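Bug #77: duplicate submission created two jobs. Keeping one. Sequence:
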Amino acid sequence: MSEEHKKQLEQKLWEIADELRWKMSADEFRNYILGFIFYKYLSENLLLRANKLLNDDWSDKTYDLVDETSEEWKVILKDIEDDTKSDLWYFLKPSELFSVITKRWNYSLEDESKWKEKKANKINEEEWGESFILEDLKNILNNIESSTTWEESEEDFIWLFEDLDLTHPKLWNTEEQKNELISRVLAKLDEIDFHLEDTEIDVIWDAYEYLIAQFASGAWKKAGEFYTPQEVSELIAKIVVWKKWHIKSVYDPTCGSGSLLLRVAKEVSNKRDLLIYWQELNRSTYNLARMNMILHWIHYTRFKIKQEDTLEYPQHWDTKFQAVVANPPFSAKWKADSWKMSDDRFSQYWVLAPSSKADFAFVQDMIHHLDDNGTLAVVLPHWVLFRWASELHIRKYLIEDRNYLDAIIWLPENIFYWTTIPTCILVFKKCRENPENVLFIDASKWFEKQKKQNRLRQKDINKIIDTYRERKEIEKYSFIATLEKIKEEGYNLNISRYVDTSEEEEEIDLKEVTKVIKKLDRESIDLDKEIKKYCDELWIISPF
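Kept job's structure:
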């Protein structure tokens, strides 16, 4: 997609979001906007498939114009339903399509007077009720979910639209006002062509990523803990897939919107074979991640998502993964109960991460699920590198006993939407190519400063990736530390102990400074004489 078309798309999306953003928090209306986009995607995707079936086997009529009441078409529709359920995993009747339901309202954005006239001249409630879109929408969204009942895709569609509450009082006070608002939003969204038939462009990806990033940026009063910026996702994905031509599986214990996993899927060569496993605690974010996968043509048989607390109730217990990625909540609280010492994820360390800081608990979970030939890359707050007590013990065990730590990448501050603190990426491998050392990269000063948060540029990402892959030392940027050096530092991994980024002070020429001082002294004496002269002329006492 050209930059011009992308800007036009973003402008249209902003207009759509602007309809709702002043009514509720970003976290609330995020579910409406993304839910409607998902419904539009499912409709257009099914329309393309159904039209192809009609043209191939039955008719030149388009699916959205089919007469559902005709006995002949009922038979044809049943065949189309069977086909789309096996291929697309769900089904929509012609009357349930996004474009059909939107046009049924017949609300003209260009001529609001038509709508006002219709409202003013309505004869009775029954006629007015035919124009109500809310009930239709609720039924359609329920039908989408129920169309997967007893199908293999049922688990991935069940309660998918539960956060899209069309009865929410914040939408407006009366049913008529809610109806008007939702109709405007859908009409604006209907103007966007997703170009699903064109595999060369991905409008739906651009639309979804733009909106998720906008919500996450806090532009609409909501921190974006559910979203990892694209630049960081790209960096992590390139690290974990390097030298792996065929990755069977990837795992994220705190998946958020799924952006990290989707980026890994984009980087691998075997996209159609990749199995994606994840967990997510927040119910709304879990639904968002499921939508995100389906939108990007990740077949439901290829992703295994569970909505549960990873540390308390791990759902992929004995599975090992070739790639493990995560951006877990920073220093979250967790239940560091004594019984967890019998949990295989934590027992070998002999200590638990502190209950007020679960950072290393997530690392331990990820290490447990890492395959022997796998790579783990996790974003953490910088203080995990040097905090003491049990966290020091865990760091020492991972380095001295297991030798799993492969690299540390210090990122610029303020590149995440929900925090301004410096962060780092820790890279772990169970079978390391360079077991005698650890690579430290200080990328904290390489970024583009923007209004709300800093951003990694493509050249910054490339510099990090090249340094990591070539494992090279660059003055004031990277350092290869031996295990003995790390031991001497007491397993304090603060990057300033390894990469010297201090600026050398300019050498001072003492002879030149002396000359300047003598010159200033002479000028001062001459100035004193001049002042005394003027004082004598004025018959006043000179200060000198």
